[in-house]
Amino acid sequence: MTDTSVGAPEYPDLEFAPDVMRAMGHAVVDRSVAHIAAINDQPARGDIDAAELCRALREGVPEAPTELEPLLDLLFERLISRSFTTTGPGYLAYIPGGGVYPAALADFIADVTNRYTGVWTAAPALVQLEANALEWLREWMQFPVGTAGLFTTGGSMATFNAILCARERYLGTELRQGTLYTSTQGHHCIAKAAKLAGIFHDRVRTIAVDGDFRMRVDALAAAIDEDRRRGLRPFLVASSAGTTNTGAVDPLDAIADVCAEQGLWHHVDGAYGAFFNLPDATRPILHGMSRGDSLTLDPHKGMFLPYGTGALLVRDGEALRQVHAATAGYLPPNQSEFYDPAQYGPELSRGFPGLRVWMAIKMYGTTGYRGALAEKRALAVWAAEQVAGIPGVVIDAAPQLSLFAFHLEGDGLTTLEARNDATERLVERVTARGRVMITGCTVDGRFLARICVLSFRTHRAHMEACVADVSEVAAAILSGA
Prior knowledge:
Helices cover about 40% and strands about 15% of the residues. By secondary structure, it is α/β, with parallel strands linked by helices.
């Protein structure tokens, strides 16, 4: 409280009274719930032509305080809608991230209580909840006991830490000799993470893919042999359990065999697809994933959690610990019985990301997640079958998991440039209708439209709307309209 004794200077009191905090909380929750209740009525992509708005938002540091209500008005009435509606049922673009409500509650609790979870001794019971959540992910992915994990801000940081583990094990200080392998369809974060780990672009090999956009194992083996002949040191293969462009799942078992034979670290990028290991129908597609030395996960994708929720699993948990374990005179001694986040990751000061994962799994259970993911797979398969029947549409990548890609062809589209332009116009026109948002990608010079079903709010009616819009727009483009 402010010191009111005679002669004492007056300082602001940053605390709010309980009834004021309660009213503020109700105001935020009321706005948030109203936003969610109206999500079906919001366009799948808001108006993002907002350059003038952004210029108008620039301001100097506020000197005087502002009340909460005007801030909520600004956010909910003017700003939030000027964006992709990533939490909406029509968001079929990129890889959706859902933002289930229990995770928001967990974040509120984590922020209000503000317990420090960087080292185990500061909040042992809370850190144990995070350890439980990582253990549950390990069980879902069928990794062995002894696996260690780490929550990250996303797949990019998970991949970075995996490469660090492999680099330390196989290269030591001889970084320039190391070579890393991924496919031409591998996520761009692999090369970026490699560079951050000291493995520069001239040591990253991109391996050709087959007709289904899956890494060619024969080309991988040949590239490894060639680098060995040149005196280099192959050390890591990064495969994909669901690529961003087409949803392709690499032949994980065969790649694991190559890595075992050659003595290489096998990292699996499961940021998009790994959680499809839960439903019975899609588990066989990911066969071999559990043989990886490390696995990137994005709970903000397959678990529908808020953005900023990534994870890494490392089969040899000691490898992850050895890379990161450190201490200092002001820290308590490291202990080995319980999970200690700072010993398994680069951060000492950190948030509490494990609570949102723990809360969601506790409130939905494995059954809830298994059923939701099975539904997304079924919706994607149904939609792909319907889209394939639309005149002029050619399916380039059928849904292995819940993503498929296609392009337009027609009598007037005689060149690749014309087909690319028509397909790009289809993506924009479908999205401009407002019911769904889809995006495209370029693969080997071809522009492909792509539909990814991974929002927990997307159901059959939304996919029927998507198919209808694609059909009508395709017919209009092919007729010259």
